[in-house]
Amino acid sequence: MVLSTICVLVSNINNINNKQLAILETLSTQQKTISQIAEDVEMSNGQTSQLVKKLHDQGFLCKKRNGNSVTVSFSDHLFAEYLRGLILNNQINLWDLLRHPCFDILLALADRKLDEKSIASEIDASWYQVDKCVLQLERKGILRNDDKEVTLSRSLPMLNDFLKSYSSYSNFAKLKELTSKGVIVWERTREFIFFAPTDEHVEGAEITGISAMSKYNIDIVSNRAYYHHFENGRKLRVGDIAIDTILAANLQPRGILYSLLFLKKIENFDRKYLILRGKDIGHEKIITDLMRFLEGKEVKSRAFPSEKEFAQTCYRYGVNLSKEDSSRQTTSSRSSSE
Predict the structure, then answer these.
(1) Apex 111 CA angle, 107 and 117, nearest 5
(2) Residue ranges in the chain modelled with pLDDT below 70
(3) What residue ranges in the chain does DSSP mark as E strands?
(4) Which domains does the chain have, with CATH numbers?
(5) How far apart are the C-alpha atoms of 69 and 240, rounded to whole Å?
(6) Residues of the chain by 3-state class (helix, strand, coil), percent to 5
(7) What is the pTM of this model?
(8) Which of 93, 116, 206, 209 is the 20 to 30 A CA-CA neighbour of 241?
(9) Is 45 in contact with 38 (CB distance < 8 Å)?
(10) Cβ count within 10 A of residue 297
């Protein structure tokens, strides 16, 4: 199994020591040479150069040679700029942000609300570790606990921006490890959907979305690429294929239509899981509306197909409608004509 670049990057951040934090802080105001940094952090030039190299390899810093000297500054990666902003605005203590397992917890909470049990499961830590760290970060105003769901403090929007941009950087690094021709179409921390011009097995990723439907005798032709889902340690379920179809299409009507088609073909899928997954990714309403549509209930959304369009699509791809569906579609057509 390929060692995840994401895990390596996060691990590297968790292993940052106080001297490296001091280097980041001294460079937040201006670029400096190795000797100037060494003087600020009270280390030898050789030791400073080694630590700067580590921070450079992690994407935080960039180095420029000017004659015989090397100038060091924050890199132009978006996450590095946000981190520099957090330091300059004194919004957060770097040790609170980057120490283990706090950074893993904060990454998991970028744009999300999770209970402590879910956080522990996602970052592979004990509930005790998570509870202890969450409590410490709550006391410092970095996290808040609303009805047993933990979220980032609303007063630190730049922290959320930093975490999201670092997550994107990590995901992109992992994608390049998987394939040189892939493009990410949806992502969050430690998870992303990408398309690539191959249906060959990519270790750590699974074919998903419309590209996976051929296994269920739904052949939707796509000339662009094959969709893959990467997420460490979790096998895709039938419901994931339906949701990934929507995410890969950026919530557009085409993706919703094909997702409905797929679920109608499968019929026997876990509705509870679908709703929970929809809530987890922040699209609970769309997934709830999927269920309502398949149950024959009215859905007031332009993103959803008419019953006539859905019936025609089912016919085109050989998906059988029940008698109730056919009767409802006929009634709907009559009502429209009247």
Answers:
(1) 60
(2) 1-15, 222-224, 323-338
(3) 32-33, 61-66, 69-74, 143-146, 149-152, 183-188, 191-196, 205-207, 226-231
(4) 1-90 (1.10.10.10), 92-155 (1.10.10.10), 180-337 (no CATH)
(5) 53
(6) 55, 15, 30
(7) 0.86
(8) 116
(9) yes
(10) 9
